[in-house]
Amino acid sequence: MEKKDLSRRQLIGSLGAGVVAAAISPLNVYAADEKKEMKVKRSAQPLQDPTKKYPKPPFKSQSQPWPGLASKMNPPPDHGEKSYVGSGRLAGRKALITGGDSGMGRACAIAYAREGADVAINYLPAEESDAKEVIALIKAEGRTAVAIPGDLRSEAFCKQLVDTAVQALGGLDILVNNAARQQTRASIMDVSTEDFDATMKTNIYAPFWTIKAALPHLKPGSCIIGTSSVQATDPSAELYDYAQTKAATTSYVRSLAKQLAPKGIRVNGIAPGPIWTPLQVSGGATQEKLKKFGEDSPMGRPGQPAELASIYVQLAASDASYATGQIYGSAGGGGLP
Ligand code: NAD
Ligand code: MG
Q1: Sign of the dihedral through C-alpha 10, 12, 13, 16
Q2: Which fold does the domain 85-330 belong to in CATH?
């Protein structure tokens, strides 16, 4: 520091002050309090063994009526409530996240707010209590938080959702299509047409409708993120309908990325492996699978939503400007993105 100060004084002596500021600004861009804050964040953290970081199976048998609540899960999922530390990577951005009440959507909402973004979340009315917790966490960061309950299986609602978010946030830069329906069925014979239709509407039509509604508002530099799954490339026997919607998600990400790159809009996806969320305990998995959830992954445990938050941030951040049409995986060593 002393050396830098000295060279600054020497420089000032020989050059105009404006030129000096420009010449040394990379070393001096941070105010003292910002420097202090960064020092805290950058202080050495102990190494953590990822295999021991979170609960491992066996898990207690548990079942909730769809769509389930994070608050009623045992053990409770970690969405980064107490751990995610932001560093201004999304300062001033405006984001809409579907399924933002729980699971990956909640982890994304918390992280985005802590990175400086204003955030609107969509969820089903039955999830109001989970959503309230997320809204409080976003507000605690001093960010605008917008709660927009409603059913994505309706095209009219998808349009209204985007319009409401744009109005409440004063624009839109990041659209995260994360909501999904997953119901386990041993046989294709057990999948009713209503079932199949509900899964297609939630997982394929809703992103289609929300993207179409959002596109006129997205300026160059904006981005769209879709939550896909390892099911896109390695479908389970009992997830016949769900798995094909995730293949569709991966496909729309790659197609739209090509279509929108010339407009300066990036489109990327995330492919989680087994993650401990309400989707799994409200019909997404059998009780047998739940008790051993994540056991098959090389990590020997399921992931927690918090472990994916930084990926949603990375894909939205402007320094990832050359990444589009990509699917980022997070599956404890198994699966393919
Ligand atoms: P989650 O239950 O926490 O989130 C899913 C959300 O979808 C719900 O909170 C609900 O708000 C929303 N939703 C469902 N149907 C809806 C509808 N008709 N209208 C409005 N909202 C609706 O579970 P999650 O696991 O965090 O799911 C998030 C994403 O992660 C999904 O796309 C899912 O496919 C994907 N995913 C999950 C896993 C996993 O193991 N949990 C693995 C791979 C991919
Ligand atoms: Mg939920």
Answers
A1: positive
A2: Rossmann fold (3.40.50)
